[in-house]
Design a protein that fits this description.
3 domains; 0% strand
Length: 185
Amino acid sequence: MNSWKEKPYSIINICLNQKIQRMGIFAHSFFINMEKKSYTFDEIKLKLVNYCVYQDRCHAEVEQKMREFLLIDEAKEEIMLYLLRENYLNEERFTRSYIRGKFYIKHWGKTKIKMNLKQKQVPEKLINKCFDEIDEGDYEKTIRKIYEDYYSKQNGLKEYQRKSKTIKYLMSRGFEYERINDVFE
């Protein structure tokens, strides 16, 4: 047998059962629904490959998924290296894809996109490098379109209130105050 790679992770189930026994009856009913099926190393590797193929993922998302399988550190490292080597996991590709999707589909501004990528532990240097995915002309057009749509819906308010409310809305969508002002001056 080739060490831990071919064994299902039943040792972890034993440890989990011991913890449940120490915690009492209430915890037992809670953990019964949480027990995991045991997978071999190759099955977990295949599941993670499929997870990455389905859509681009960042390292943090893959690491979180690995935590669900309760893997030992050596297995995590080996799977992560395999995913990187075979180009299933590529942080730059993920970042570029994320930026395109959030801007062109959800119409988020750069500030909101950057904040969400930082939450996914993507390096700031990489984020800044990948912002070239957004065409500056498209960025200004999007600001104008959102401004006009939202501004036209503000009825019964004075001019300065409509403008103020619309600018706040654009900022909540992640657009920079300076860029909003530049577009309308």
